[in-house]
């Protein structure tokens, strides 16, 4: 991590800072000199997501920076073709941190069946149920009780076990500014502006300094639109 902070003191997006600019420059240079696959960034348009998992699975790239949700996918498609490991997040001058995320199953407040929904949520939130779900699906848990105990992932693949243990260990070392982002109201427009404009730099459509200006402008426009 380069210590970038996107959240202003008022809770609104802050102008992109030195940390963002420093890492963006490195990212652009890595693509320019061939150390990073350009197609991952510029083959899709706008904020469209193009995963690099298949490139890693097919042996086209040596290092793939992603999240724990890819573990089951990698295990199923790589099989015994080659060994692979989870390394944890590379270190920058500020921290060695990833960013938490994931999917959530939530109850809707205005449901007409509050009692029944409550029972389902109570069941799904039970420690033993979360533990079983975690062990069988190879997903990391968001339950403190489960995290505090030993998790026995249901797999014979030693690559999977080692990788999930590495992710579990890393989950306790998330930097505060990274931990604040997933639930932040303005995260999506910030992510979108960063991806769109930096990808344009990589494609040769913008200069990096121009992209920095456009990123702030894009984010301000999204905030203004949502605040009407």
Quick summary:
By secondary structure, this protein is an all-alpha fold. The chain is built from 11 helices and no strands. The longest helix is centred in the C-terminal third of the chain and has 19 residues, at 208-226.
Layout of secondary structure:
Elements: H1 18-32, H2 38-42, H3 53-57, H4 71-78, H5 114-124, H6 127-137, H7 144-148, H8 158-170, H9 176-179, H10 187-202, H11 208-226
Helix pairs in contact: 1-10, 10-11
Approximately how much helix is present in the residues? 40-55%
Number of domains: 1
> How many helical elements?
11
Would you list the SSEs in sequence order as H and E?
HHHHHHHHHHH
Instruction: Give the overall average pLDDT.
Output: 91
The poorly predicted ranges are none
What Rg do the Cα atoms give? 20 Å
- Give the biggest sheet: none
> How large is the share of residues in beta strands?
under 5%
Q: Give the terminus-to-terminus CA distance.
A: 34 Å
Number of strands: 0
Query: Strand pairing plus helix content: what structural class?
Result: mainly alpha
Shape: globular
What does this entry look like structurally?
The protein has 228 residues and is an all-alpha fold. The chain has one domain. The chain is 49% helix and 0% strand. The chain is built from 11 helices and no strands. Helix 1 (18-32) runs parallel beside helix 10 and helix 10 (187-202) runs antiparallel to helix 11 (208-226). The longest helix is centred in the C-terminal third of the chain and has 19 residues, at 208-226. The chain is globular, with a radius of gyration of 20 Å. It starts with 17 loop residues before the first helix and ends with a helix.
């Amino acid at each position: 991590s380069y210590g970038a902070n996107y959240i202003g003191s008022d809770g609104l997006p802050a102008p992109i800072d030195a940390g963002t600019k420093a890492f963006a420059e490195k990212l652009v240079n890595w693509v320019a000199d061939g150390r990073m696959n350009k197609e991952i960034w510029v083959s899709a348009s706008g904020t469209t997501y193009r995963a690099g998992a298949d490139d890693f699975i097919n042996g086209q790239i040596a290092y793939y920076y992603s999240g724990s949700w890819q573990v089951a996918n990698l295990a199923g498609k790589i099989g015994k073709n080659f060994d692979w490991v989870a390394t944890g997040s590379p270190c920058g001058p500020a921290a060695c941190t990833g960013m938490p995320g994931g999917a959530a199953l939530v109850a809707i407040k205005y449901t007409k069946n509050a009692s029944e929904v409550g029972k389902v949520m109570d069941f799904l939130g039970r420690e033993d149920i979360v533990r079983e779900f975690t062990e069988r699906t190879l997903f990391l848990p968001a339950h403190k009780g489960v995290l505090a105990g030993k998790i026995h992932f249901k797999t014979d693949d030693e690559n999977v076990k080692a990788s999930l243990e590495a992710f579990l260990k890393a989950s306790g070392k998330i930097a505060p500014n990274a931990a604040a982002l997933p639930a932040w109201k303005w995260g999506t427009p910030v992510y979108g502006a960063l991806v769109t404009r930096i990808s344009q730099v990589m494609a040769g459509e913008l200069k990096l300094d121009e992209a920095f200006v456009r990123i702030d402008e894009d984010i301000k426009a999204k905030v203004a639109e949502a605040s009407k």
